[in-house]
Every structure is written in structure tokens, then in C-alpha cells.
Amino acid sequence: MEQVDYIIVGAGYAGVFFAHQLIKQKRSFKIFYDENISASQISAGVCNPVILKRFNTFWKSQEQIDYLNVIFKEIETYTSKNYLIDENVVRIFHNDSEKVQWTKNAQKEDLKSYLSLDFIKLESVENLFGAGKVNQSCRIDVSNFFLDMLSYLEDNDYLVKEKFNHQLINTTSNSYKNITFKNIIFCEGVASNNNPFFSHIPIQPNKGHCLKVKLKEKPESYIIKKKHFLFNLQDDEYYYGGTYDRFDMSTNINDESVEELKSGLEGIYKNDFEIQDVNVAFRATVGDRRPILGKHQEHQNFYIFNGLGARGVYNGSYFSKTLFDFIENNLNLDSEIDVKRFY
């Protein structure tokens, strides 16, 4: 039997960032990856401290921003790459009243470092009322981040490419097949609903579509947002998305969602474009909009790390350390994120 400190189930943002904490602290582990494309892998990867519908911020936003730079510098030590892309989000205003609200909110103590009062006029897209820039925003190179991290995990014999079968866990011997473990972390996203140990946790699947488009004329180097995000991937290829649907549970591409994206892009971009690819996946969301961390009621070495929602990069990176410190250093979890709130 192989002995490890941890088994991680799932290789989205939660699983990969937690794996980083174990690499950093020299813990032994296996991470199970079924090779299906996750919501994390097709996400925009935008790191934005402002909720752009209401021009306000969220819980622990500055702490998450600060830690983002720390964790990616740590990751760079073994991948030799920094995946943070220094592009700011710019929010196109729908009308003058939004600009007034932005200006008002920019005076607030918790928002003044985020909401720039130097308004922008974009030449490449329709923005009759201008746009506001979000300071301290950025994005990550999602594709290369997962490509490199999964390659590193595989090269160092951490990665197990197979679907995890919960029925094969022996809770008496703390073993799975030929592996014994001290702790097991379930980072399964929406698949958590089929996990017999945590199926009672109310994970809500939220279906999202995004497009890869080829643009005739290149927009400015921002993460442009009106209804959806638009930014450059490489050369003349751009990301545009994503949609949010809490009701469609099929895995198929929804034509209405694709039309919503196409219409949204046509609404701001007046040159020709070509849809090259459509991606769809399910985000794991929670009604109270807080991630879920903590231990099982009965099995004290069984943990969950889930519910990252649309802020997967922020929540995954910051709370991976929170969970590690909870398990290894006996630090308390805030009640707002503790899985105990569902017991």
C-alpha cells in the first residue's frame, strides 16, 4: 500500500490551489483528475474586486487580491511562469446614471482604491457613455495555468488520471484502492452532489457558456465588460462570455445562450467576427455566495473545499491556504465559510 498525507479529489481551481499548498509544505499527496473539462478550465479567469452590477465589493476582497500575488509568485518557483496578466477591467456604462453611481461609490472607503475616476473612452467598441476602470483588477492565463500545473503534477507522480469512485473508500482503514491517507479533500464542484459524504450540502449547478471568437479589428488591451467579458487570448482570438443559467441542467450547448452571447457582442463590437468555438460547463455555486470549507460531521479527516462560484481564482487561491491552516495548524474557520453552517 502506498501511504500519503492527502488525497485530493478534483483538479479545478480548488484542487489545484490546494495541491500547491501541499507542494509548498512538502506534504505527500495524490490528486484525482477524470480528464473532463471543468468549469475552472474554461473560465474567464478574471480577478475583479468589484461587483460590476452594483459597483460595490465583496467580503475579504483586498486580502484576496494581496494573496493572489503571493501565491502566483510561489507557483512560479516551480513552473517558471507567472500566470497573472496585468490587464484592467473596464466597465462600459449603460447610461449617465451609472456613471453618477460609479462616481458616488468611488468616494466610499472600501471602494476608492478600486473605482478609478479617470473615465475611459474606448475607440474599438460602442461606449456612448464611456467606461470606468477597475484598479487592481487583472486576469490569469487560464489555459496555460492548468496545462502547466497538471503537467507538473503528472511529472512529479502526484496526478492520478481516473474517475474517483467514492464506494471504494474504506473509512475504517482510511484507504482508497492501494492508497492509505491521513486526510482526504473533496474539491469536486457540482459533482459533490453525488458524493455520499457531502451530498447534503446545497451545491447549486450554474450552467455557463462562453465563446472563442475571431475579431477583424483588435480592441484595446483591457478586459472589456458590458454584459459579458471580452478580452484577447492570442493573436486575433478573443474570449467572450459567460452566461449564467440555474435552470438548464443538460450538458448540451444551449442555442439560446449562444444567441445571447452573439447578440451581446454585436451590441458593442461593430466589426466582423467569427465564432470559432463554444464551451459549456457548470459552476458550483451556493445560495449565500460563500465558499464551503471544513470537515465531515462523522469522518474527521474528510474535508470539503467547494462552492467557489464565479470568483474561482480569488476563492480558490485564498481559501486553499485557509483550509490548509485549518487542518494542519488548528486555525479556526470563519463561520461564514465553514461547512458547519449546513449541519
Your description of this structure?
With 343 residues, the chain is α/β, with parallel strands linked by helices. It has six helices and 18 strands. The strands form three sheets. Strands 1, 2, 8, 9, 10, 11, 17 and 18 form an eight-stranded mixed β-sheet that branches. A seven-stranded mixed β-sheet has the order 6-5-13-14-15-12-16, covered by helices on one side. α1 packs across α6 and α2 packs across α6. The longest helix has 19 residues. The radius of gyration is 21 Å and the shape is globular. The two termini are 34 Å apart. The model has no long low-confidence stretch (mean pLDDT 96).
Explain briefly what this protein structure is.
With 343 residues, this protein is an alpha/beta fold. It has helices spanning 13-24, 61-79, 96-105, 142-155, 255-268, 312-329; strands at 2-9, 29-32, 46-47, 84-85, 89-92, 131-134, 138-140, 159-160, 169-170, 175-176, 179-186, 204-215, 223-225, 229-234, 237-241, 273-285, 292-295, 302-306. It contains six helices and 18 strands.
